[in-house]
């Protein structure tokens, strides 16, 4: 078996029990009678077990059998059926998003559990998650009769869901999409006509119904994104008596991908026989032809962006833990720093430790970033006051592009280092790293490419509410530095690097501002992706130091003989590595921005012939 | 067809006709009556045609059919047979290494032609090249009777070759290998017993004979690398009458790899029936048990290291040129810097241009580095004076680790950017980027991992001959700066960056020297790979500026209306991009080294459990 589940739960427990304000979460009305901090260990251990015993055994089928398309239908690897059903039935699927049911698990916890499941078979999890994501949009935006019609089955997982955005000619440029919605006699219902591609789990054979959320333009509505509306367009039309009949949605094929082969990436044709109907969600386009579609879609899209980062993190961390397991047993060579000690296991070589520490530090950084946002996702929905809900939404808005792009950008390089640490075996599919590398590459592309994320960050989020929201993110770091400077023994250099990086980052913002003002907006585009990375490194550097603060206290308390000491010590090493190796990139990026190389702006396309 | 050959020849012609001292090469005895500069265009165009029409059509079979292993035999994709034979017969194969034949093509030219062929089907080319590489070792080190026995068929390509080094328990730690050589009554012949893995094209069905060069230890010889000897161990024993009989070499299996699937990566068992014989190459181990094996093997290994860099470059450049072809036709979105101009092809977007320019600049940098070394390879063999041959060998020694590691490290990130530029299509195997990504990953591992290359550079090459040889490499940059400062209009900032990088690099050397002296050799290991990258960036920055100097003169001469102007203009853009975006990493690396993070040295392995 080439795929191996190697997830460790300790950091997840630390985040929930010692780092995030879980007491706050558990005091909210929705949760207070149902959950306590003591449940964390049980939940995490239970889901770890499910991930390993129920989900992970399907991972090889994902890659070797893959989703198949035959005669217009998608077939999952047979082993998926039972695993998906199990997850739904046990409450790890869409039912979490039934916000009106009692006893729902706190989202803060849920998404961290989901990370463990994702690592076990990343491609399969979309079959489990997409119904919930679709339900969530319907819950927030649809009319009551639509909620009644669709939510129960979506929550139960007996119906699936998909998000239909991309078309053959339109990906990043959403505003240009061509799918049409034609009014019918019933103002609630439109005829849908168009082609959608890259539709994740757009068809499946484990259940009959897939509820597609289709972004389309009502005839005559405004051009661009503002003219778009969202239509609940089920694969099977729901008749008044509840019976289901085909709705002229054809699956024209699936993609043959580098990885993530268990997840069917579908080409869908809506209304080829002019007989596809969709329910308009929310109001019709207004008198200016402006629809609600893009706003509604972004609700799902933002969830999907966090989900993307989580998938990337999960697969990267699993690759790393597999690599370090291999490194414990593989004996090879003498230590450069102590050649006389004889042959050692490779996990003792400095360069191998560097590859591990790079992975450990960066995955912990990503997990901290994402976990913080899970808390915000939870708070924007369930915090007791509107102010706090708004506060959480604002924080989430600022950090979402980082959550999507940073883990998915890093995954490629990190998994390559895990793979490298095996030597030649890493290149063989019998070992897990190759599969992880193939799986991860889509995440820098889908749900808005990482360049789109970078533009969202720099071109929108930086400026939103006159820059006050993003200034609040940087302000957290100011506060942390003010509170903790001189108080983290052994991490003085690391604190200094955080401070230096924060200053450099603000200068970077100013430099980009000046470029834009002087008409060199092309420089913003040129440096956007690098600045996004630097942003994540700055913010994650702060988060790791914030965690290290707790770790230092716990180490003091436990003493080095305690069985749990090494976890906290590891946290210190992650912090040291990250602040001394990744965070300097923040001011290095400033320097690149200041160089202000205009070659990408000025290069005529003809030179790329050579 | 997913694989597409998109190679452009212009930079190769530029390198040969305008940049490298080809006049010098063509004045050497071996070449002067046979070749002139006028032949370059014809040769390049001809091989480009062979690559596209004969080799590239086999690439899809490489990936989709792959090499198969059945009942102890390796079968190539059927289309390989004709293509391999064609290349051999037309003189693009092993016959180039017949240094005593008349009319041999200059190596300087040959290796650049080979780059084009490699891009067309990288996995297949090992079947063509390995026989030549084995012949080359035999030519330089073997006794005359062995030359007579093996060289003619190897040169003709009717026999293949392999290099047998790695064993299941031994990869990087060559000195630990276990294969034994047991003396027989004939002092020239030993019984060989052992297992070798990861043997590239170790078996094949297009020809019967494979001549294995097996690294083994004569019983009783010294431990470690110095006790090793090299044995010509053919798959079929060559009897005195020239007939061939099985030599107890079994192919126990092949690896299932991430990519490069056409190239059979074999597990070989020598002497399972105690009946495998090998010819000792050169003298037997001396009275101290010291053999010649590792020295001889390194002759082939160093060739293989350049070959690795060339393969990585070829696949990366082909992926880039495919991407830019796609980008010309794909219309998507409005320009950030000029939104009112309407929808544009994606190759006009700044971030896409950045991905292309990053690829263009870095592949041109790698090609310049490798091409310079092809010249040294040529000169060390055929330059008229021993002094010049020695000079070329020394240069080659210094630059070999860069040639192997830099292109193979960069390939992964560069191809990811080519892939990214397609959007979702990049992740689909119907487009060529995914295949290129899978193919390229082995090159950072085989022929000595890139960490081994980095240690070779920093731990050996820096110090060789008291540091004078490597100082000579840096001295080239001093000279270039002294000669050209203020003389490259428009590239003043770029020249300043080169100068700053050179200074920073020398400080990096001093910093590492101090760490080693103060017992912190672990810091050398920690930063080795990053310093290797910085070394390549420094040296390639110089090479690109050296090329830009020619380009500036040619642009002046031709004027912007000339059909060839854009090639030279592109060279300027490559130089600008590289010096403003890659070369600053040289001083950024210095800063990281100066931070001197000891976390990789100090981290106990226990922390990697989390």
UniProtKB/TrEMBL annotation, chains A, B:
Q: Does the keyword Transferase apply?
A: no
The record, for InterPro entries, names: Acyl-CoA_dh-like_C_dom (IPR025878), Acyl-CoA_Oxase/DH_mid-dom (IPR006091), Acyl-CoA_Oxase/DH_mid-dom_sf (IPR046373), AcylCo_DH-like_C (IPR036250), AcylCo_DH/oxidase_C (IPR009075), AcylCoA_DH/ox_N (IPR013786), AcylCoA_DH/ox_N_sf (IPR037069), AcylCoA_DH/oxidase_NM_dom_sf (IPR009100)
Query: Ranges for the Acetyl-CoA dehydrogenase-like C-terminal domain?
Result: 474-603
Per UniProt, residues of the Acyl-CoA dehydrogenase/oxidase N-terminal domain are 41-157
Name all Acyl-CoA oxidase/dehydrogenase middle domain ranges: 162-270
Q: Lineage in the entry?
A: Bacteria, Bacillati, Bacillota, Clostridia, Eubacteriales
Task: One GO cellular component term, please give it.
Answer: plasma membrane
> Which residues fall in a coiled-coil region?
481-508
Q: Which UniProt keywords apply?
A: Coiled coil, FAD, Flavoprotein, Oxidoreductase
Q: Give the UniProt family note.
A: Belongs to the acyl-CoA dehydrogenase family.
| Record domain Acyl-CoA dehydrogenase/oxidase C-terminal: where | 293-456
Necessary cofactors: FAD
**Species the sequence originates in:** Syntrophomonas zehnderi OL-4
Single GO molecular function:
flavin adenine dinucleotide binding
Q: What is this protein called?
A: Acyl-CoA dehydrogenase/oxidase C-terminal
């Amino acid at each position: 078996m080439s795929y191996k589940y190697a997830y460790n739960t300790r950091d997840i427990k630390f985040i929930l029990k010692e780092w995030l304000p879980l007491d706050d979460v558990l005091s909210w009305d929705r949760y207070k009678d149902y959950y306590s901090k003591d449940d964390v260990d049980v939940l995490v251990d239970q889901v770890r077990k499910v991930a390993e015993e129920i989900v992970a055994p399907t991972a090889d089928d994902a890659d070797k059998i893959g989703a198949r398309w035959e005669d217009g239908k998608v077939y999952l690897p047979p082993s998926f059926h039972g695993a998906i059903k199990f997850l739904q039935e046990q409450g790890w699927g869409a039912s979490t998003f039934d916000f009106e049911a009692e006893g729902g698990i706190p989202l803060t916890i849920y998404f961290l559990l989901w990370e463990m499941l994702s690592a076990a078979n990343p491609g399969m999890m979309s079959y489990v998650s997409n119904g919930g994501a679709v339900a969530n949009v319907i819950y927030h935006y649809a009319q009551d009769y639509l909620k009644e019609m669709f939510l129960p089955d979506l929550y139960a997982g007996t119906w699936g869901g998909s998000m239909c955005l991309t078309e053959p000619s339109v990906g990043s440029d959403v505003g240009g999409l061509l799918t049409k919605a034609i009014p019918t006699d019933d103002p609630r219902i439109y005829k849908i006509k168009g082609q959608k591609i890259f539709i994740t789990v757009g068809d499946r054979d484990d259940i009959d119904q897939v509820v597609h959320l289709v972004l389309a333009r009502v005839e005559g509505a405004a051009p661009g994104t503002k003219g778009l509306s969202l239509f609940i367009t089920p694969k099977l039309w729901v008749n008044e008596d509840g019976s289901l009949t085909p709705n002229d949605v054809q699956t024209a094929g699936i993609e043959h991908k580098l990885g993530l082969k268990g997840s069917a990436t579908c080409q869908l044709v809506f209304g080829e026989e002019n007989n596809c109907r969709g329910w308009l969600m929310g109001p019709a386009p207004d008198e200016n032809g402006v629809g609600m579609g893009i706003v509604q879609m972004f609700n799902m899209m933002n969830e999907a962006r966090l989900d993307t980062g989580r998938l990337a993190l999960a697969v990267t961390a699993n690759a790393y833990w597999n690599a370090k397991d291999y490194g414990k047993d593989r004996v090879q060579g003498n230590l450069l720093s102590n050649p006389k000690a004889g042959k050692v296991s490779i996990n003792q070589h400095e360069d191998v430790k560097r590859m591990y520490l790079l992975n450990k530090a960066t995955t912990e950084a990503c997990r901290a970033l994402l976990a913080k946002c899970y808390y915000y996702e939870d708070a924007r929905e369930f915090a007791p006051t509107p102010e706090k809900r708004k506060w959480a939404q604002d924080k989430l808005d600022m950090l979402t592009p980082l959550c999507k792009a940073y883990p998915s950008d890093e995954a490629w390089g990190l998994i390559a280092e895990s793979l490298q640490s095996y030597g030649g075996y890493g290149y063989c599919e019998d070992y897990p790293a190759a599969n992880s590398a193939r799986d991860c590459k889509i995440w820098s592309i889908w749900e808005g490419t990482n360049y789109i994320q970078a533009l969202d960050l720099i071109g929108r989020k930086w400026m939103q509410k006159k820059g006050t929201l993003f200034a609040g993110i940087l302000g957290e770091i100011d506060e942390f530095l003010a509170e903790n400077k001189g108080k983290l023994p052994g991490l003085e250099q690391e604190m200094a690097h955080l401070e230096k990086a924060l200053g450099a980052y603000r200068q970077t913002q100013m430099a980009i501002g000046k470029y834009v003002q002087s008409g060199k907006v092309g420089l913003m585009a040129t440096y956007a992706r690098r600045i996004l990375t630097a942003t994540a490194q700055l913010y994650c550097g702060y988060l790791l130091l914030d965690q290290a603060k707790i770790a230092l206290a716990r180490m003091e308390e436990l003493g080095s003989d305690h069985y749990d000491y090494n976890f906290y010590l590891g946290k210190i090493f992650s912090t040291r590595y990250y602040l001394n190796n990744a965070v300097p990139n923040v001011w290095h990026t400033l320097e690149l921005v200041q160089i202000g190389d205009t070659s990408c702006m000025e290069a005529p396309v003809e030179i790329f012939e050579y």
